Amino acid sequence: MVKPRATVATEPDRAADRATDPIGDGGSRDSRSSDSNSTAGGRDSTRKPQSAARTRQAAGGITWRLRLRRDRTLILMTLPAIALLLIFNYIPLLGNIVAFQDYDVYDLGITGSPFVGFDNFTRIFEDYRFWEVLVNTLVIFLTQLVLFFPIPIAVALLLNTIMSARVRAWVQAVVYLPHFFSWVLVVTVFQQMFGGAGLVAQWLREHGHAGFDLMTNASFFKFLVTAQAVWKDAGWGVIVFLAALAAVNTDLYEAAAVDGAGRWRRMWHVTLPALRPVIALLLVLRVGSALNLDFEQILLQRDQVGPGASEILDTYIWWTGIKTGDFGYAAAAGIFKGLFSVAMVLGANKVAHMLGEQGVYSKK
User: Fold this and answer.
1) pTM greater than 0.85
2) Which of 39, 166, 278, 305 has minimal CB crowding within 10 Å?
3) Phi and psi dihedrals of 115, rounded to 5?
4) For residues 320-331, average pLDDT
5) Helix 199-206, helix 183-194: angle, nearest 10
6) CA distance 20 to 22
7) Cα–Cα distance measured from residue 345 to residue 51, given in angstroms and rounded to the nearest whole number
């Protein structure tokens, strides 16, 4: 007769295990698991993945299969957007190879055009006109950064002080409405207002003053396009800053008022610090798009003031590269523009980190 093995711990041993085990009966579980592993033999390898998954779930994690099953509806909703992003943004990047070719769009194509290395980039760096256009683009950008960027912040602060929700919604709708206008309509409105035959010039002539034509004034062009950008897109920035202001804890305003802070003190010490992260993020993104001025806006007014004052990098690439069929030159200029924008984003983000803000991405 075969005697059964003594595999079960005695009650004193279990009590000792409970006393030394910080989570209760972990010692007994360990002893039972060791015995089951010794008796299960080959079945242990099949149970390890399940035990690992249970361990991850117990630790607060989740397996990728459960995550995929949980989020399958959201994934299906994002598939069309991902497809559009791939088709119109990432797949066309493969066409940048023409920047290194003597590209012939009509006969040879991408596969038959000969490679010329960095000749197209050399042509760009040796073209003095390219550098003049680059400087003019940066001048217009800096003008818009100084005169346009603070306006949505000021308007959002002004709207935030209006107590009537109906008045605040009406003003916000009026300010935001021009965002839906095309640049053709915006330029037409400014032409009718500030052109040589516009309403302002006619009113001045009727009252014995000399008229003016701001639409053809080359020295005033950078301020003109800035005013157009303010009228069209300031409302969009107001929405972003109002959303940030809505997240500010109202108890901070009450505490500041109890401490004797007036309206200006509350705005300086409560409102503006709450807007600092959003301001830093939008400023970094704005600096990154320094060379991405509105192409349509400038192209519509280029002939009125001349290319000397209105030429930006996009219009220069259009006239010297695409319109003349020199696609290799245009692609090289586009790559330079992209690399310059990336460098500007990284530099501005580094400055944001030095000032204690997160910027586009957090500092590790």
Assistant:
1) no
2) 166
3) -80, 140
4) 85
5) 10
6) 6
7) 46
